[in-house]
Amino acid sequence: MESTTMRRRFDSVEASAMVSDLRVTFDSGKTRSYEWRASQLKALTKLTEENEQAIVQALNSDLSKCETEAYIQEIAMLKNSCKGALKELKRWMTSEKVKTSISTFPSTAEIVSEPLGVVLIISAWNYPFLLSLEPIIGAIAAGNAVVLKPSEVAPATSSLLAKLLGEYLDNSCIRVVEGAVDETSALLQQKWDKIFYTGNGRVARIVMAAAAKHLTPVVLELGGKSPAVVDSNIDLKVATRRIIAGKWCCNNGQACISPDYIITTKDYAPKLVDALKTELEKFYGKNPLESKDLSRIVNSNHFGRLTKLLDDEKLSGKIVFGGEKDESKLMISPTILLDVPRNSLMMREEIFGPLLPIITVDKLEESFDVINSGTKPLAAYLFTTNNKLKEQFVMNISAGGLVINDTALHLAINTLPFGGVGESGIGAYHGKFSFDAFSHKKAVLYRSFFGDAAIRYPPYTNTKMRLLKALIGGGLLGIIRALFGLS
Ligand code: NAD
């Protein structure tokens, strides 16, 4: 898209006109039918299937993302979600019959899922294809009109999304607005029926404040410092490979659910470091900066941010593996730091890159206090064979999601909600949770004109009161007693 023309043109006047247009289409009822929703989900699948190479190229241009990661972590995930939504759509749309109570007898009741209206999706740069389209699946499935604002930090994918959604989807209901802060601010001034934001907590506060002006509900998909606790009774090789898979095999650590830091015991740390070194060398060779399987750092701002974390004087002598950088290629190698002080910069903010600090404790149980002393993370991982510890971890650690003996994989399970808690986010999506995130659950009670009980109406008497009390809480015996004046 001609981004400079777009940037000058797209202000709040144009944003307002666009939302009005979409509202007219939404009000026409077009997006509500099963046929429209299914047709758009099919079109999204077709878009993905017919443009795999272009998507891979855009992700490579934005992040040097390798084809395997682009395919498995973005393209295949999206196709899978579309397929799942299409398979379940009729069931999701069917209203749910629920029980009624004796106090409304005779009656029936149901929960009807209705679309919210016109919704805004603001996405982030690290999985720019998936994070833009996965929420759109939910918005379409639930029958909404949608505006997508992809991240300007991944410009190739942003412009590809604008082109492809323009070509494949129904533009009377689904639009893309490219741009950065100005364009997003213009969008945020409008009244939306839901705002779904993926990104960092600072901007999330701006989004939520803008939404509050119109009482617009939000989903905020944020990040945080996701810990991995490593016990000593494990299959070290498998655990190590799985930690690497969630960290460096996910966009070189630029993933919201990558392990941010490790906690292990002082005694076990040297073994863990050795195993990580061995496996990392097997995966990325002796010179990881040359590896085609590692993404680059997205831009020089983030390269500078990560360099600053590494240059913290509190960390001098702490690097036990890696630490190589090539600014011309925006590459940083997988880097492990041992015994990182908790007051270092690296331990005070989300790393979102290839640096992995290890914190050591005397007893593994202390790790719970370390985690709980910080803000609630998006994910938390535990490697152990100790069932008691697993149980304690599940009961005591509050995080968006937990995985025992692996990392990141919960994201791929569409029957699990994906979202944060506390500082790591509000709301969740994936599978049916995406449909629910973009639906209003409307309570509907049906009555007939039969059985109009006089006890509801004045004049109120003691007998009516006794009967009402029995009806509300007295059970069948209480009702019979009240009817016969026995209570
Ligand atoms: P980003 O820079 O792409 O920003 C996200 C969006 O916010 C973009 O569309 C951008 O245009 C918009 N934006 C930026 N500044 C704005 C402003 N002042 N006003 C309005 N809009 C503005 O992405 P990021 O924030 O660097 O993303 C990284 C963060 O996102 C990390 O914290 C990561 O953990 C989190 N994240 C979370 C998930 C998840 O699913 N929970 C997924 C990916 C990333």
TrEMBL record:
<dbReference type="InterPro" id="IPR012394">
    <property type="entry name" value="Aldehyde_DH_NAD(P)"/>
</dbReference>
<keyword id="KW-0560">Oxidoreductase</keyword>
<dbReference type="InterPro" id="IPR016161">
    <property type="entry name" value="Ald_DH/histidinol_DH"/>
</dbReference>
<dbReference type="InterPro" id="IPR029510">
    <property type="entry name" value="Ald_DH_CS_GLU"/>
</dbReference>
<protein>
    <recommendedName>
        <fullName>Aldehyde dehydrogenase</fullName>
    </recommendedName>
</protein>
<dbReference type="InterPro" id="IPR016162">
    <property type="entry name" value="Ald_DH_N"/>
</dbReference>
<dbReference type="InterPro" id="IPR015590">
    <property type="entry name" value="Aldehyde_DH_dom"/>
</dbReference>
<dbReference type="InterPro" id="IPR016163">
    <property type="entry name" value="Ald_DH_C"/>
</dbReference>
<dbReference type="Pfam" id="PF00171">
    <property type="entry name" value="Aldedh"/>
</dbReference>
<comment type="similarity">
    <text>Belongs to the aldehyde dehydrogenase family.</text>
</comment>
<dbReference type="GO" id="GO:0004029">
    <property type="term" value="F:aldehyde dehydrogenase (NAD+) activity"/>
</dbReference>
<feature type="active site">
    <location>
        <position position="221"/>
    </location>
</feature>
<feature type="domain" description="Aldehyde dehydrogenase">
    <location>
        <begin position="12"/>
        <end position="444"/>
    </location>
</feature>
